[in-house]
Amino acid sequence: MNSSITDEAVKTIDHYKVDNAIIMAAGISSRFAPISYEYPKALLNVKGEVSIERQIRQLKEAGIHDITVVVGYRKELFYYLKDKYDVNIVENPEYNVRNNNSTLYYVKDILSNTYICSADNYFTVNVFDAYVQEAYYSAVFQKGETNEWCIKTDDTGLITDVVVGGSDSWIMLGHAFFSQEFSKKFVEILERIYDNPETKPLLWEGIYTKHINELPMYIRKYSKEIIFEFDTLDELRTFDNTYWDCTRSKILQQVCQELKCKERDILKAKPLNINGETIGFTFITNDILYKYLYSEKVIRIEED
Questions:
Q1: What is the model's pTM?
Q2: Mind spelling out the 3-state secondary structure of the chain?
Q3: Alpha-carbon distance 17 to 65, whole Å?
């Protein structure tokens, strides 16, 4: 029996080899108030590890060493990663005027067999592989009502529709994988529509869903205990209970001094927006609703 691997088999295997990974770290993450005002959410220390560093390490452990981090907001805070982990840094100059479609636009020339990662995702186990056969988006099952992006598939797992909001549904959460074929078609579409005004506010996922029939992508299902995304301080506290008594936030420390309370007493922090600009945040302490204004560094009781 001839056990040697044929040239054709080698080519097939190579076709599925992951070429690189893009970590999207340009956004402001204003929902994570007020910590995101002080430093990017990707640099949170979660259970003893900086979030983005954990993700870089997991990629490298899976054999993926060509990693590009796309930065924008507080970009200077990310450059240490270049020396520490030998990653590439690309700046997105439009991070504050466009949604994350601009992040992929600035790396469009290197999209191939590529992982697309959000810098603030936390994976309890390593979800990355060196070889992947088809484009996919990771998903977890959400029981009950949800306002997340809900996935519909056919019997093969091919995603046929994505709708915002639903019940008892698999939702988009975590990383995605672009195959060579997917990347080529996605870049063609992105370049064609990039300058259209209606493209500006779209997530890259929004572009995908608008062209879903041209961009075949499959669902990859994970347990809810594997993929996490912390949109608020309260959500992070549920996962890492050290944040109850130490939020690592100078602003919240100031709030505690002025209100003579503990950090664990500050709950339900939400960004305060006026005309699309985040000017501060609201929070509840001892059943009283307050607001904090970044520019004035003052706390006021929020009136109805």
A1: 0.93
A2: CCCCCCHHHHHHHHHCECCEEEEEECCCCCCCCCHHHHCCHHHCEECCEEHHHHHHHHHHHCCCCCEEEEEECEHHHHCHHHHHHCCEEEECCCCCCCCCHHHHHCCHHHCCCEEEEECCEEECCCCCCCECCCCEEEEEEEEEEEEEEEEEECCCCEEEEEEEEEEEEEEEEEEEEECHHHHHHHHHHHHHHCCCHHHCCCCHHHHHHHCCCCCCCEEEEECCCCEEECCCHHHHHHHCHHHHCCCCCHHHHHHHHHHCCCHHHCEEEEEEEECCEEEEEEEEECCEEEEEECCCCEEEECCC
A3: 12
Q: What per-residue confidence (pLDDT) applies to 98?
A: 96
Burial of 154 (0-12, 13-18, 19+ CB in 10 A): exposed
Query: Which pLDDT tens digit goes with each residue over 45-93?
Result: 999 999 999 999 999 999 999 999 999 999 999 999 999 999 999 999 9
Dihedral sign for Cα atoms in the order 109, 115, 119, 120: positive
Task: Give tens-digit pLDDT for 152-197.
Answer: 999 999 999 999 999 999 999 999 999 999 999 999 999 999 999 9
